[in-house]
Structures are given as C-alpha cells and as structure tokens.
Prior knowledge:
The longest helix is centred in the N-terminal third of the chain and has 18 residues, at 73-90. 33% of the residues lie in helices and 14% in strands. The protein is elongated and about 55 Å long. It is an alpha/beta fold. Helix 9 links the parallel strand 7 (229-233) and strand 8 (256-259).
Amino acid sequence: MRMRPTLSWTPTEAPEPGTTDLEPVRDVLGTGGVLVLTGAGISTESGIPDYRGEGGSLSRHTPMTYQDFTASAGARRRYWARGHLGWRTFGRARPNAGHRSVAAFGRHGLLSGVITQNVDGLHQAGGSRDVVELHGSLGRVVCLSCGDVGSRGDLARRLEEVNAGFEPVAAGLNPDGDADLTDDQVEGFRVVPCSRCGGILKPDVVFFGEAVPRERVERCRAMVEEASSLLVLGSSLTVMSGLRFVRQAAGAGKPVVIVNRDPTRGDRYAVARVELPLGAALTSLAARLGVPVDGTPTA
C-alpha cells in the first residue's frame, strides 16, 4: 500500500498562545545574524494562495506526489494541463511588502541568509540574494532521463504551440501553480517531451513524497548552525523539511520567533509566535529599525 505524504497536522495538545507584540521579532532582527525561513503565507498577499491557512487549498486540492507523477502518463497530463494554465497567473505574480521587507533586512546587514519553502521565486524578484529554494523553483523544468534543466517560459511556449485554443476556466489556483481543472477539461491536452533526449519533463520542484536533495539540506543545516537566531515567516511547519531546522535551532539554544496567523507545528520550540499579517508586520518592523524598504519590485 502506497503511503501518502503528510499534508496536514492536528495539534495533540492546547496550542501555544500567540501575541500581536512585534518586540520579540524586533529584538532578534536588531541583534543581526538572523536566518529567515519562509513558507506559503508570505506570498498570499501576492495572490498566491496558502496550503493550510483560512481557505487554504488543501481543503479542496491534493497536491501531486512524485510517485503518481512518475508512475502515470495520465497523472502527468493532468499535472501539465493544470500547471500550464496556472503558470499564466503564477508567472505574473509580483513580490509584496513582505518579500521587499526581507530583502531590505538583508541589504541592511541584519540577516545571515534566507531559506524559502516556496517555489514562486518572489524573494529573488523582491531583491533578496543568495536565497536557498528548499523545494526548488517552478521557473525551471528538468528532464528525468538526461537531467537537462530548462526554462519554464520556454516550455510554456512549446505547450502553447501544441495546445492551441486551450482556454479552460479554472476553479482556483494552488500554491504549487496547479490550477483546479476537472478531468474533462484536461482531456486531450498534449504533453511535450524533453527537446534534448525525448524524456519525461518535470518541474524542478520537490513534490510531496519526494526527498529534498541531501546537499541542499546540508547547506541549510550549516546556515542554521551559523545563524544567531531563526525567524519563521508564514509557515505552518507541518512538513519535516522545514520543521527540522526549527528543531535544530532550538536544540542549539538559538531563539526561534514565528510570524504566522495560525498555530504551527513548531510553536513549542519558539520564544514567541506573532499573529499578524506579514506584509504589515514586516513593514512596521522595518520602520522601527530604520530600514528603508524599496517599494519598486524587480521584474
């Protein structure tokens, strides 16, 4: 029987109380050397939905798993049909005040680095540099046969050419760029192979049920070791890929502060969880710290 990946988390005890006081965040940022770990919640203000927050996509959508994608041509057709439509919206998303504030903290020398669980590229578009994309990027595609890495934009143009007139109306968009379409809507969609070897193309992201590359995990572990504190922004920390770094930081005696509207799986390890909208909270923190935030995102 195939095991499904962990998609949700239910607290087994009373949730740790949150606060609306930004001082714990100001304290760690003011000290410097802060490692930032972000999740889907930082991108909701850019029009990309969350998985688990209020109205999160997991209430109506089960993300594609690596096992299903590799085992079934039908699953790949559904994924690429839905993903092709979703990319038209996803690819136009722009960084919001939260992304720009994180970039500003970095330019001001307050951060030791940024790890993101998101696959949207908005931290880089907002001005952050040397971002570790823990789960990869939807902006790239990789061939499962020859390993060639290509541009999602190039693939989108190829898919447009062989699927002229593909204009279904989606019921919604998900954080992985997957548009909600029915089986009838994706019937007849044509998938294109790797232009180099004819192999199967996959987005260069870590699907649910797929392991994060070991070297990427080790790089993140080293970043936690070098940081003075960990600031988690917009992540429920449901999946172990992010939670392990919270546990590592707390185990090393480093302060962990979380900004998230809902309880998280990592609250027990944090000195505080701040329940405020990220854009407004981070903009306010930047003002308190005298950090100018660039209001003009890059393309």
